[in-house]
Amino acid sequence: MVDISIEKKLKALWELQEIDSKIDQLNLLKGELPMEVDDLEDEIAGLETRLENMQTEIKNYEGEIAAYKAKIKQFEELEKKYKAQLNAVKNNREFEALNKELEIAGLEILAAEKRIKETHFHIDNKKVGLDAVKEDIASHKKDLDFKKKELKTIVGDTEVEEKELGKERVGLEKQVTDRLIKAYNRIRKNVKNGIAVAPIMRGSCGGCFSKIPPQRQSDIKQHFKIIDCEHCGRILVDNAVTGIVSEVIVEEEKPKRRVRTLKATK
Q1: Of the residues 85, 125, 139, 156, which has the maximum number of CB atoms within 10 A of its CB?
Q2: 147, 37 in Cβ contact below 8 A?
Q3: CATH fold of 31-160, please?
Q4: pTM over the 0.70 mark
Q5: Which fold has domain 1-29+177-246?
Q6: What is the dihedral of CA 56, 58, 60, 65, to 10 degrees?
Q7: Angle 100-101-104 (CA atoms, 0-180°, nearest 5)?
């Protein structure tokens, strides 16, 4: 990379700051729409996952019902078998044993029917919740479509300008070192207004408005090195870099006071 003077680097950084400030203004036009769109997409994804889980639970319940029905059928067959065997019993012991098996089969059938009833209740509740989630998804998707259209309109209005600013930004970044660009980007992230390069205004930092000592102001004007604000860490530049004409306050000349002299009386 060709060695570039400190003054040129500072001018490139200042121009970079101006471009980033313009981009920040364009982003302000979008407001919180990008975040709102992202949040809605995340919420919809969460609701769709919940919907899938509920549908899976309903299928599992339906599987349980099918298993209980198969169990009922199995014990009904056993009941028929035991009843047929009752006609051929030879003693009380066999009769009592078959009656016991019939009783157990009957209880198993009643238990399975009870489980089926309970499972149907769970399914009905899940279906109510399922409908509510579907309504939420439909409502969120409607909001998302509206916000996406709104954002697309704003982006369409600013897209050309953003691309032009982006090209200028790339060109300016090439005029300074990677280390300096990293420092600049780090400062931008750490300050509220995104101002990493601040002009000297009335002897103060244009970012945090803290007073700059006269000797430090003199060093900044010499362009021997990059100097930052001792209070906020912003890179400081003088009006030779920014082209901003400092305001000079001229005090109006105060009108001369008329002095009245008194003549001595004899």
Answers
A1: 85
A2: yes
A3: Helix Hairpins (1.10.287)
A4: no
A5: Helix Hairpins (1.10.287)
A6: -170
A7: 90
